[in-house]
Amino acid sequence: MWTEDELVEYEQLKFQREDAMKAMESGVPLIAIGRELIIDPDWVEKVQNGREDEIETKLDLRAQERLVVPTPLWQAIVSRPDWFPVAE
């Protein structure tokens, strides 16, 4: 069982390089970036290479095929309007 201190809710963090590094240095065993990886599959590479300004932070609703998101997951995402930030 995780303690409250070990849980990190990705919705409360701005996942920029500095934030991720601070979280890792704090001893937190897990950083949840699943939503961010669905929005921008190159998130990790961009952070590692100092290209945070290129990170997509909103989901493009026309990008299912490019993002390679299976249809059942895509339907779950788009049917819950507050789950993912959406590009206008």
UniProtKB/TrEMBL annotation:
Coiled-coil features, chain-numbered ranges: none
Pfam families named in the record: Oxidored_FMN
Superkingdom of this protein's organism: Bacteria
Boundaries of every NADH:flavin oxidoreductase/NADH oxidase N-terminal domain copy: 16-54
Classification via SUPFAM superfamilies: FMN-linked oxidoreductases
Cited InterPro entries: Aldolase_TIM, OxRdtase_FMN_N
The protein's name: NADH:flavin oxidoreductase/NADH oxidase N-terminal domain-containing protein
